[in-house]
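Practice problem: predict the structure.
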Amino acid sequence: MDTRILRYLFHQMSADELRLFEADYKRDPELAADTRRMKNLQALFTLHSSQKDEEGGKRSLQQSSFGSEENGVQKKIYALLRYAAVIVATAGLTLFIVSRVNRPQPSYASVSTQKGQVAQCTLPDGSKVWLNTDTRLIFNTLNGHRDVTVNGEALFDVRHDPAHPFIVKSKRGRIKVLGTKFMVTDFSREPYSVTLERGKVEVSSTIEGIRPIVLSQSQKAELIGTKFVVTKAKDGESSWTDGILTFTNVPLTHIAHIIERQYGTHIIISSSSLAQERYTAKFFITDGPMEILKMLRQSHEFDISSTPNGSIVLK
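Answer:
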């Protein structure tokens, strides 16, 4: 196996090395197949659908074997395999976190999704997490420790445990809960936000001088400038967990941004008036960007074309 795959998966390549690897990936079917296989292993190993129990997970993990010249990276992969198994489905991923026995546990492990991928995780404490596309979750694997870090967007259904508060950290905020269901969004191109479905959460910012707030059921907080702005949560905010994209009276610019984030597609809107046209609609994530745009133009007519580099142009 090409050892560059491991360096690629753990983001240890320089920009030049990454460009060369991606070019080789497109040309070499064997390299592409090996990379996909290792992505599945990094995503915490593929199980048959009947193997949802812990013992089945242990047996499957014990049967897996592969070698690498890069021992440091190999240890990282085994650290991941120790804690979870993954069932890969058409609509996304369902992850079942399982403990290995007779092995020392590391302090943290991680799960991540690629563009167009959604994952559901069960953490060691029994809390459930849904990860949206292009999102990474880092979680503490030690018993009694309930702290996670999110880069992207995730919906949490936290198991009630008053003795051990559940802490969610991201680049721009921190959330403290005892037992509740809420969504956190922290993408670099979007406002930091927390949407609460039930229970109560305390939300604070990593920026000094911004006062923490407490959210009640069906409220949403967005970090705008130097304060949190609280509004009523819209229906369908977390519908992506069911494979659905929901838009409620939003401009085309917002929809284009979500499509770009979801599918890794670049969209150019050449008309300012078109950019501000507003839509209310629902789409299956599996519809894909072009089908979504074609359905949108049935409401407000616009042309769709592509540039040589693959960007989509709306005008």
